[in-house]
Specification:
Length: 355
């Protein structure tokens, strides 16, 4: 079986490095299968033997560690259901066009992750009073078009986020050993944040007294347009923006007049979803959809609403989510140079036509 055949459930946008998203009808599940989880790689996936691998924990700690794969497997474990979304998801919908992998809306998935709390590792090492951030470096490396230099993927995370017990060094995905393309043998999982923080193929952990501010950390920033007269507010990409997507009907569907159920998913990194509204008349009116209860703190919530397709012709179906912090999904996300955090209202064009 070829590599591409093995990702038959995914829409492959790039083969090297591998970037592959979901087809939106496949969002209608509580948890994605390992084969059906989107993949975002910056460089080629490394081949790692657990017997040759270890994870050093150094820097601003009292006792440096060097953990083997078996060491981590024997430590107390924690399991959470968590959504992961690429920061560039939906980038292709941003206008004017933004540079980067042209994701449609499929760079999002939910899985059940098992591993060791980063907090437990840091407590074992003993943090010095100077510690503020922790750098996670992967084994994957290569050249980036914007750099030209050989790079290793790395990202630092503030200590505050890491002291949440749900931030994991994950070694299982949906009850199975972590697959190669998802970071085997160990990856970081930072729930509630965009996926760029969840470094795969971990190679080392360094506790620091400052953010790393390396290439990828500076790349995952919101660089807005500037008029040249004032300083543009540059900010780091962190927590997930409130967002919803329609899974059914699919874009471009041709439907006969009749009764249908519009389905989709919604999520936010700032709380649970409290409301999803659907418009079937191009933003003229909105109706509240039936919304499922939250599954933990980090998963998506499915919604559905009945619709009677009566009017012949072309229509736009839209969905709009609101979270428990009061954030409402905008009609158009604020443009930024790299097209990150795009949470514009999802609009699905369909046609109603008699057979």
């Amino acid at each position: 079986m070829s590599d591409l055949e093995s990702f038959g459930d995914l829409n492959v946008l790039s083969e090297d490095p591998l970037c592959a998203g979901l087809f939106l009808p496949n969002l209608d599940v509580p948890i994605c299968s390992n084969e059906g989880h989107f993949i975002r790689s910056h460089f080629a996936a490394p081949q790692i033997k657990p017997s040759d691998w270890s994870l050093p924990v150094t820097g601003d700690v009292n006792d440096s560690l060097n953990l083997s794969y078996d060491d981590l497997l024997m430590m107390p474990s924690r399991e959470i259901v968590s959504l992961m979304e690429c920061a560039g998801n939906s980038r292709s919908t941003m206008q004017p066009p933004a540079e980067g992998v042209q994701w449609d809306n499929g760079a999002v998935s939910v899985s059940r992750w098992k591993g060791v709390s980063v907090k437990a590792i840091l407590e074992q090492a003993g943090l010095k009073a100077s510690a503020t951030d922790v750098l996670f470096e992967g084994t994957d490396s290569g050249k980036d078009a914007h750099s030209g230099n050989q790079l290793t993927y790395a990202m630092s995370v503030p200590l505050e986020k890491l002291l949440n017990e749900d931030t994991l060094l994950a070694y299982e995905m949906n009850g199975e050993t972590l697959p190669k393309d998802h970071g085997f043998p160990i990856r970081l999982l930072v729930p509630g944040w965009y996926g760029m923080a969840s470094v795969k193929w971990l190679d080392k952990i360094t506790v620091m007294d400052h953010p790393n501010c390396g290439f990828h950390e500076m790349d995952y920033r919101i660089y807005p347009a500037t008029d040249g007269k004032s300083d543009a507010q540059v900010e780091r990409v962190t927590s997930l923006k409130v967002k919803s997507l329609i899974s059914t009907p699919a874009k471009g569907s041709v439907l006969a007049p009749g009764s249908y159920t519009i389905k989709g998913v919604a999520w936010s990194g700032d709380g649970t979803i409290t409301k999803v509204e659907v418009s079937t008349d191009d933003n003229r009116s909105w109706r509240e959809a039936k919304l499922e209860e939250p599954n933990g703190n980090y998963s998506w919530q499915h919604f559905e609403i009945d619709w009677e397709a009566k009017n012949l012709g072309h229509s736009l179906i839209r969905c709009r989510a609101t979270d428990s912090a009061g954030n409402v999904q905008p009609m158009l996300a604020t443009w930024n140079f790299r097209g990150y955090r795009c949470n514009s209202i999802h609009s699905v064009p369909i046609t109603v036509r008699k057979a």
